[in-house]
Amino acid sequence: MAEMMYRDAVRETIREEMARDESVVVLGEDVVGGMGTAGGPEAIGGIWSTSTGLFEQFGASRVIDTPISESAIVGTAGGLALSGKRPVAELMFADFIGVSLDQLWNQIGKFRYMFGGKTRCPAVIRMAYGGGYNAAAQHSQCVHQILTGMPGLKVVMPSTPEDVRGLLRTAIRGDDPVMFLEHKALYGVSGEVPEGDYTIPFGHARQVTAGEDVTVVATGMMVGVAEAAAERMAEDGIGVDLLDLRTTSPMDEEAILDSVEVTGRLVIVDEAPPRCNLATDIAALVARKAFSSLRAPVEMVTAPHSPVPFALELEQAYLPSDDQVEAAVRKTLDYR
Amino acid sequence: MTDLRAFCMPKWGIEMTEGTLAEWMVGEGDAFKKGDLLCLIETDKITNEVEAEKDGVVERIVVKAGGDAEAVGSLLAVFGDGSADAEAIDSFVAGFKPTSALGSVRKKKPAAQKVADDQPVPPKDASGGEKKPVRIDTNRPISPEALKFAEAEGVDISGIEGSGREGRITLQDVQQAARPARAPQLRGPVDHPEENLEVFASPLARRIASQNGVDLGPVVGTGPRGRIRKADVLKLLEGQSTASDAPFVPVDNRPEIEAFDRVRKVVAKRLTAAKQDIPHFYLRTSVCADPVIALRRHANLVLGSKASLNDFVVMAAARALRRHPEVNVQLHGEEIHRFPHADVSVAVASPNGLMTPIVRQADRLGIGQIAKATRALIDKAEAGRLGYDDLDGGTFTVSNLGMFGIENFDAIINPPQAAILAVGAASRVPVEGEDGAIGFETRISLTLSVDHRAIDGAAGAKFLATFKTLFENPEELFA
Amino acid sequence: MQLSREQLLQAYRRMATIRAFEERLHDVIATGEVAGFTHLYCGQEAVAVGVCEHLDTEDKIVSTHRGHGHCLAKGCDVQGMMKEIWGSTEGLCKGKGGSMHIADVDKGMLGANGIVGAGAPIAVGAALSNKLDGEGRVAIAFSGDGACNQGTTFEAMNMAVVTNAPCIFVFENNHYSEHTGDDYAVGTANDIASRAEAFGMRVWRADGCDFFAVYETMRELLEYVRAGNGPAAVEFDTERFYGHFEGDPQNYRGDGELDRIRKERDCLQIFRQRVSEAGLLETDALDELDKAAHADVEAAVEAARAAPRPTAEDVLTDVYVTY
């Protein structure tokens, strides 16, 4: 086991995959950084440092620095994928799916289906999402709640460096388009990473803490938030079965239902606003398939129905907190 | 005008404030004769049969079986001679008020009621139930059904935080507020097996595998994407060898969960309160049982009774209580109620749980009467037919676990009583005789649990000494 | 003129097939037998064929909603296409795509596209893939005077220039973006090529109704792009004989406009005229090709009518490779 930072896990995994398979190509705005400047290529190396050094190692034909053209970045990735390459494209901020949505939604997500299964589109679109950086309404959002509902796309939300490596390998080696959502507040987080060329299959939740009193489901940064609450409540004898979904499409329905059948109580933590998000989706799932197991109403801990605010205090109030998770868990336990 | 009669929730014993109609044995329109079984009513202590006091016809059943508890005096049904029309019955029901006699025995005065004449009165509330309909004027957003519920049940909505949009109060919110708080039973955190990235298995499958020492490596999953699911592991476990030389494999040992039934709830509540509230102290001694054993054989032969050892314990205790009225007490708030005679409760295990029926005025009964009364109570307890009168009151309890070979134990006091005697098994023990030789005698160990608020240590000790003298010299019992 | 007799016959045969295919669909759609939206390529055949006659399967094309002509020119199977338009499981896309999404990736046809302007970025990707493979292959984005106004097209042109992608932007100006004229909607005074020029590309302009003009322009252009000079663009002036979609009443057309363009601007007639004047092909041979094209199309319609239909179980297949 080695310690590795989340961002380094992203970069090193891409580097390994590029070395392993010549068809892997990286593209995106500033993935080289400094092109056309006095500083020259690699003056920046990607604003998240998730592509530093790749240009030097693999050259301009495989590390393609693009203009700020999100539609063209995603569309180009689609064209590369249809032509047999394995593009790993970066949208600097997930919020920019807004300008590239047609290419994500109508193009790469649908090629295989529209073409009757006669093609594959192994494109990985990486994007930094989430709050916590005071980046305000257009640079702090979650997008999984939008992308998860799009048939044809897979959506991955790793919460640890270990999962980044296992899931990104699966994404790059897989034959379907994958939205790889990296939480920007996790980039600097370190964690143990196993040695070896392991992969983590999609649709396979991770059990973070085990307990038989309440099921808590979370993704991305919310996993850590929920874990803090779970650890605190363990001291009071409250057993939290905390599931990190890892991928929201496909989603590990079985793990959720198995757990709720034991606990009878469910709290879903979602960094997205509360309408039509992952939490409502899971609540509906459990209402349909585990109704008789429920002993209390399903609780959701989500961001409010507002854009992500800028000011420190406002953003803190906006983001779901461990206190909110604890309160929600206790509320389900207090249900009478 | 036909002769309509109200059939109300009866009151059995001083503590009964409400009862639940468990089952009707008669239906609307049925004629019944005096002594016919009308219904079963449950209280927090017992289920009792209610017989007809005179002949009649069921004109209207007001309270259906299986509902909530009804206050004593609530209108349950309307009886008549079968000639009443619906309108007459309706007006009888609407005009029904609990009688003053019933009202007077209530501990609490029924809340003052002001109901407009033209408003039909739900019988439950008219009977003086604690929930009365209120009109709620509020600007707060609330769902129509929630408002209706709150008004009907008299739920104060001011403290409710609405869970709906913009704080709108939902029916669920009001129902929550109306129910008593409940402490959840926690099972707590459990260890979960480290995820093996080589093995693709659901968390539940991993947990079961880990609990059972199953290696998931070779398992072929049947779940989505070939994942190993619970069923795959269980299938594997079924096929595992049970030969004695096989390594021990723990099996699934999760509990089957049974919610408290009514009796269990009451027992749990009472015992918890007793253990927490009563400052218990414990006095231990042992008594020689040989004289009683000898006498019992003789007495049973002569009296034709079948007195058990325990009957002699009850008898000795009752006689000792009469001599020590400071122990023959109940504690009510800050009052000590001292009784002239000993109503001895006998702890009996029944199918419905622990029951403590009472041998009334046991100090005035002979051994044969005590044996007979106790036997009758045990039979009733086993049949689940103990009545309110069998259970209500008591000034002292004898709890005997000797038949299970228990040597000694400490019992929890059964309030409002202030003492309980825990009786262990009789065992043969070597003793030094007066001449220094070793002999054997039969001894029973006793623990008296005493409520220190009502009974001083010395008083308890004196009582126990008297008991010991009587028990070891049983001829005195017949003096 | 460098075309052999065989090449000329093949080019005409392809144009005639497109024409027959679209005319037949026009009739059939009016009866309600074919579902969905269909956009016919009639009138523009010389562009698709004049471009694609230069390509092999490793050169990619990305098409538009008006894509039948590009598909047929790139070698897609007539029956497979017709069955797709009929929604059969034997269609090129198993009935999942329909008229607007016909694709045959093995033939280098990366799909018609229901979103106007969406194809250009995809073509850039295909071009970069070809560039990476280093064998001089290109990718072609077909766009019209509608798509030329989409931001994606601009992004793609800039991206192609920046990345030096062997990508060719073929603008077919048929003068109507849906129901709006290019006089109104194309802000650069009807001139689409100048936009590509502004992005730094070398551009060509030619008459899209003259197969020979298209063919010759593309020969020159492809030579330039295959040599590694980066992207290029071309604007072909062409005509749309039918409406935006089938059922379009075309109230926006001028008096006698359709008759005039059919008479003066029919690329098949122009082809016949040119080869006759030059004594390259006899009318009889061309008539034979017309007949053969009609027979092919008729056989395709019969086959499509008889082809197996999908079932409800097929809805969930091919969403993912694995899920």
From TrEMBL, chain A:
Presence of keyword Cell inner membrane: no
Pfam families assigned to the protein according to its UniProt record, in alphabetical order: Transket_pyr, Transketolase_C
Protein's UniProt keywords contain Transmembrane helix: no
Name of the protein in its database record: Alpha-ketoacid dehydrogenase subunit beta
Family matches, as CDD domains: TPP_PYR_E1-PDHc-beta_like (cd07036)
Keywords: Oxidoreductase
Organism whose genome encodes this protein: Alteriqipengyuania abyssalis
InterPro entries: THDP-binding, Transketo_C/PFOR_II, Transketolase-like_Pyr-bd, Transketolase_C
Domain Transketolase-like pyrimidine-binding, first and last residues per copy: 4-189
UniProtKB/TrEMBL annotation, chain B:
Region described as Disordered: spans on this chain: 107-137
Top enzyme category: transferase
Signal peptide per UniProt: none
Bias-annotated ranges (Basic and acidic residues): 127-137
The EC number(s) this enzyme carries: 2.3.1.-
Cofactor needs: (R)-lipoate
Keyword annotations of the record: Acyltransferase, Lipoyl, Transferase
Keyword presence, Acyltransferase: yes
Domain Lipoyl-binding: 4-80
CDD domains assigned: lipoyl_domain (cd06849)
Domain Peripheral subunit-binding (PSBD): from-to ranges: 141-178, 200-237
Family as reported in the entry's similarity comment: Belongs to the 2-oxoacid dehydrogenase family.
Stored PANTHER family: DIHYDROLIPOAMIDE ACETYL/SUCCINYL-TRANSFERASE-RELATED, DIHYDROLIPOYLLYSINE-RESIDUE ACETYLTRANSFERASE COMPONENT OF PYRUVATE DEHYDROGENASE COMPLEX, MITOCHONDRIAL-RELATED
Name recorded for this polypeptide: Dihydrolipoamide acetyltransferase component of pyruvate dehydrogenase complex
Native species: Alteriqipengyuania abyssalis
Lineage, highest ranks first: Bacteria, Pseudomonadati, Pseudomonadota, Alphaproteobacteria, Sphingomonadales
Automatic annotation (TrEMBL), chain C:
Oxidoreductase listed as a keyword: yes
Family annotation (Pfam families): E1_dh
Cofactor(s) listed in the protein's UniProt record: thiamine diphosphate
Keyword set, alphabetical order: Oxidoreductase, Thiamine pyrophosphate
Record-linked SUPFAM superfamilies: Thiamin diphosphate-binding fold (THDP-binding)
Catalytic reaction equation(s): N(6)-[(R)-lipoyl]-L-lysyl-[protein] + pyruvate + H(+) = N(6)-[(R)-S(8)-acetyldihydrolipoyl]-L-lysyl-[protein] + CO2
Stretches assigned to the Dehydrogenase E1 component domain: 13-312
Keyword Repeat: no
Function, in words: The pyruvate dehydrogenase complex catalyzes the overall conversion of pyruvate to acetyl-CoA and CO(2). It contains multiple copies of three enzymatic components: pyruvate dehydrogenase (E1), dihydrolipoamide acetyltransferase (E2) and lipoamide dehydrogenase (E3).
Name this polypeptide is given: Thiamine pyrophosphate-dependent dehydrogenase E1 component subunit alpha
Native source species: Alteriqipengyuania abyssalis
